[in-house]
Amino acid sequence: MGIKRVLTKDFATENLTQLSVYEKTGGYAGFKKALEMQPDELVEMVKKSGLRGRGGAGFPTGNKWSFLPKGVYPRYLVCNADESEPGCFKDRYLIEMSPHQLLEGIMIGSYAIGCNLAFIYIRGEYLPGYEILEAALDQARQAGYLGKNVLGKGFDFDIVLHRGAGAYICGEETALLTSLEGYRGEPRLKPPFPAIKGLYAAPTVVNNVETLSNLPHIVNNGADWFASMGTPTGKGTRVWCMSGHVNRPGNYELENGTPIRELIEDLGGGVWKGRRLKAFQPGGASMMVLLPEHLDVALDFDAIQKAGSMAGAGAMVVMDETTCMVDAARRYVKFFHHESCGKCTPCREGTFWMANLFDHFEAGEAKPTDIDLLLDIGYNIDGRSFCPLGDASTWFPRSVIKYFRDEFQQHISEKGCPFKKPVEEAVA
Amino acid sequence: MAIARHTLTRIQEIAARYPSRRSAIIPALWEVQHEQGYVTEAAMGEIAQALDLPPSLVEATASFYSMFLTRPEGRHDVVVCINAPCMLRGADEIAAYVERALGVRDGQTTPDGAITWHTTIECLGACGGAPMMQVDHRFEENLTHERVDAIIERLREAPGPHDGPAAAKAGEGEVRKANAIPKVKGERVRSGAEGARARGKRSQA
Predict the structure, then answer these.
(1) For domain B5-62, is the CATH number 1.10.10?
(2) Of chain B's two ends, which shows fewer C-beta atoms within 10 Å, N or C?
(3) Which residue of chain A is at minimal alpha-carbon distance from B68?
């Protein structure tokens, strides 16, 4: 347990973004090896490795691939690089540090599922990452890893880099596909799932940047090697993005199953300014808050779920004792309100009313009944929208009410925020 | 202002990459915004013509995405993130400082036309280096008052990324010069590649 460098092992190497340097660190060996194998063998290998999606839902990658209907072509692989979850910055880090690792992962995945044209959907805000990937794609094309008859193995393959334009909702896979087709980024009803009818109504696999970056290592070292790391249901490592009130925020790649305490206290150097820990959030904006008593929970999909939250996309937001939990929840609710695509009424209207109520709390205008009203609105959004954006908008505020109800009451009785920060109204 | 010929050629090249021309709408909007700084309704019509699609479709798509501008703004675009992870590390205070330093409110442009700034609740993906902002879509992290002052001073003189190809080249140089901005004591870019590389070295040592 603890630090385990798989994806990030060569990140100290200068100019790793250059293809020649990446090859020297053993890069593209996995893809060459994969081309010697049968696609079905690769799918079995990934299944056996126990790799689960790193984008949030944690769905087993090999299973996702095997849902593609037999004999239906063309089929597409889409890399989801629309990382927009507040608290997350691991995909940006993986792209900016080692773009070829991602490209190699996409090549392996595409060969395994029989896809000849893959897409990378990168969020509009990641301009540096976009430029780095663009350069990496040019290099890969020149080196013969992309194009007709790749490496003389009779596999025609190319990758199209597609830049989004500022919509969190496009991280949801069906909205991403709709956006990639040129429409407004609104989610679609499932089923049919993308594996059956995805991009251009063809069978499609959508995988996260971190998931795909794992593939070269699995092919190189074998499924058993990968399955030897982590916990029984959470194999391998994860890159955790730590932010908030810690001494050393940043990205840390840890073996699954490492206790949260080790991440926050040892690697992160503990809570800053000698203060006490109040709460933390293990999965980014969407996920429920946890308390200091949960510090010994393992960083693992199932363990965190058992503790009442979710590992989500691997963000660790740490909050010290001076944090106003109501204000933190207010920011997230405002975020979801801003990012709601407007398709489903419960999400569009519900997030609006939740944001209004939170403003009342911060301004000291809330009524005692407003706490339960918030819960009621949350109940009416959760499970009543097309996609998880609506559901997710309610999880953090509801968990904050569960653990910190007294803070809401303080906001009412003291007619304003008891944490009195010298804050100018900055949220628009 | 009509779309330049080279941009239209580029849009056709991009459209050829996709199985459907419709997929080229967002990339085409980016190309036009890169050339002109914003996308007018007339330009959307031209894009529609170039891609052989109804104009309403291009407008419907353009209006959904928050990064496409429909009117001219300042030469430079400064965005300060105030979502919770940034808030925890003092983003509100930095936003207030930017407002005082520029002398215009959130969402406005400085009178000299150099800078349009606004706060955003949309996470920009640099929580490890909070408080942060994006300047013309490039990351500035671990902000302090001195750092903000230095950035603003540079932007007031520098040409914008949309001021034509020559200026854009010069602007690139300026962006690189941004790294020469006085590093504040103890400052480290944490969530970007730079800080990560330093950390990687330490752990390998």
Answers:
(1) yes
(2) C
(3) A165
